[in-house]
Target: EF-hand calcium binding domain 10
Amino acid sequence: MQARGSREQEARDYLEEHRIMELLNYLTSTLLFFRPALKTLGLLTADEVLKDDGHAVTLDKFRREVNKRMEEIWAAF
Model:
């Protein structure tokens, strides 16, 4: 039973060291928040594929993208 406990501890340590839980939280937030928010604002069509540059989406980055898309929309008027 000792080996099982140490393996579980190793797994917990690995998850913590590599910030896996942070990554999962980020991915969940992205799926649950950013895409619906863009759709609600009319800045994302149903069939549009979002591009990921491999970096975390910060609030400033999100704002810049929203502003850029709003400018593109309003430029038509």
Notes: The chain has one domain: 3-76.
